[in-house]
Design goal:
Blueprint lengths: L8 E4 L15 H6 L1 H7 L3 E4 L3 E2 L11 E5 L6 H13 L3 E6 L3 E3 L3 H7 L3 H4 L4 E3 L18 E4 L4 E4 L6 E3 L5 H16 L4 E4 L20 H4 L5 H12 L5 E5 L5 H8 L8 E3 L8 E2 L2 E5 L4 H18 L4 E2 L9 H4 L7 H13 L4 E5 L20 H12 L4 H11 L36 H5 L5 H14 L1 H5 L1 E5 L6 E7 L3 E8 L5 E3 L9 E5 L13 E3 L4 E7 L1
Bound molecules: alpha-D-glucopyranose.
The site of alpha-D-glucopyranose (GLC) has 9 residues, from loops.
Length: 550
Amino acid sequence: MEGFKASAVYQIYTKSFQDSNGDGLGDIRGVISRLDYIKEQGADYIWLTPFFKSPLNDNGYDVSDYLSVDPVFGTMEDVEELIAQAEARGIGCMFDMVFNHTSTEHAWFRKALAGDPEYMDYYIFRDGEPDVPPTNWESKFGGSAWEYVPHLKKWYLHLFDVTQADLNWDNPKVREELKNVIRFWKNKGVKGFRFDVVNLISKPEAFENDYAGDGRRFYTDGPHVHEYLQELTRDTGIASMVTVGEMSSTSLENCIRYSRPEDKELTMCFNFHHLKVDYKDGDKWKLKEPDLGELKRLFTEWQEGMEKAGGWNAVFWCNHDQPRAVSRFGDDRKYWKESAKTLAIVAHMFRGTPYVYQGEELGMTNPRYSDISQYRDVESINYYKILQERGASKEEALAVLGERSRDNGRTPMQWKAGPNAGFTDGEPWIGIPENHSYINVEEENKDEDSILSCYKKLIRLRKEYRVIAEGDIGFIYRDHPQVLAYRRRTEEEELIVLANMTGREAALAPAFDAGGWELLTASWKEAPAQAEGEIRMLRPFESQVWRKSR
Ligand code: GLC
């Protein structure tokens, strides 16, 4: 069995996981102190969000030196100890490579700003008049994607914050520099890499205005992206490691190529289409209820499509850029436990490698902040203004942030009830939801029926039953308005997953024979209702995993 198929990855948002020195920010020593917790869950890898030297304008996704550790997170010795301590527990470290852009504080960009032509060619500079950007492309964090540098009389491209300048991957020197970063961390014993927005690295030859969108169609899955990834993987010898690319607004066809073993690009891909089913008109900043039909359609397309072509998915609901899944697709009040477990079951039984984002395994919720001063994220702060410019009142803008802000997923890990949830002895950098009084590791560890126990069990099952890691997949009840269901199969075993994704009972005509099935796990504690005549009833957010030998 290929290792990554039976593996699970635990994502740590370093800044919010565990503080060890009382400054209110999570750090590497904090992570070390919690390795046993991760081990208990059965995770094979930890992915740590960036802790490299950074002005932290985008919480570390603005790297100013890839080869050193930012003092707020610790030292190089701490990171070496983390790698060793993780390895001693059978956990591999995956580090986060932010290679689409650097911080404008990076030495390369500073030299570029000083007018050094060699380093200007590391970035994407274009001539232009001070008030006419080279194209009308928008930054993903709001505003123009270009910034004018008066003394150079040129604009530079930044698809993200103005302090995150896009690198010029068409320059072979840039590609060499980045390979050296990989080699450096590989030599330290890192077992895998996550590549940040890596499908944006190859920009088009000609830059043109986008009259139908924000520009993304010109640089997403760009002209040389596959070639550059193959080169990176080949020249750094990481083909046998676990690598995952974050793919922004990508396509199935491209993700097949990124992750198909024969292309030797990456092990797997994150895509985000399923996390846009609650965007009205495709706009993140316009709210609508999640469209379950669309969610089912997308999962079917991606799960079946990747299988057919031999690609591999990274499966996830949550990360540090997303609101909490239980608040978004579940019901974080009435069916908190059942809906959190159902989301977990659906993802962990899919074909692909599951990623658990810190706190997801506890059913952590959005914090429901009531004031803009509680937000920290640059994107949220920008959009609070932009939404008001577009006509929203303060209250309306806050209501949108309450659902969409990335800070929803960045509140500190809830270790226990009591002061600061056990995250820090100091003042946490961002507020902690009240519900840490009952949503916390200490409580949930004591309870066999907790969400945490469910996650542990799901990871255990993946290692126990080959069908979960390796089986093929086909969706059933395809048109059911409430139930997401699929079948997994190997030659020896078969699995059926039924999940009522709504807060209402759902009726299901049996689509498979009754005999010989064993219930592996379920979201409701109480035993499943018996099929009544021809109809099986699923309670609100009830999900079940059935298995039998073939
Ligand atoms: C990715 C990261 C996100 C960051 C952005 C720019 O989407 O996950 O946190 O802001 O890239 O690096």
